[in-house]
Write a structure and sequence with these properties.
Number of helices: 9
Distance between the termini: 87 Å
Oligomer: single chain
Strand order of the largest sheet: 1-2
Structural class: mainly alpha
Number of strands: 2
Largest sheet: 2 strands, antiparallel
Number of domains: 2
Shape: elongated
Length: 197
Amino acid sequence: MRNQTRKLRAAQGMCVDCGNKPRQKTNQRCSGCQEKDRDRQRAWAKRKRDSGLCGRCGQERENDSLKYCQRCRNYKLEHYQRNAEKIKAQRREQYKGRKEYHRQYAQTRRSLLREKVFAAYGGPVCSCCKEAESTFLTVDHINEDGPDHRKKHGLNSSTAFYNWLIANDFPGGFQVLCRNCNWGKHMNGGVCPHQTK
């Protein structure tokens, strides 16, 4: 009976779930029913993840830091590889209308990561000259091995570097320096010019 009702609604161009609102061109349900379904799916996945299960299939996860089990991650990867061009086109289209939102989101996220990293390494102040203007500050590799470290771990941006520091529980060998002290240290053989005076 339910299937017949859904087929009848679809034939009439109505939402197959609620039967009231006209359905969207690309889907058989109205935007309200789609959103309700998305919320229900997100809540289900969150409950599964919170209990240590895969957020897609509900099976045991091998790694608690990941959302999905290995089988589901493989499925998602294969699906993406099969449909890469279509997915990329959809993402480009979605991004076009929300450029400013994405830019603001990335900026806010980067700022929060910086604050968290600076706090873990003694706060937002240069450990050499005590400069406190956050815009001037950066994270320094104490042993002057920054290029090797970035290459080894594939860290091609400050955001990737901050994420790596957080994921590795803020390992030693790093400090907060202002860019002047950082550059001066680099040019002066690993010792900031402030320290040689």
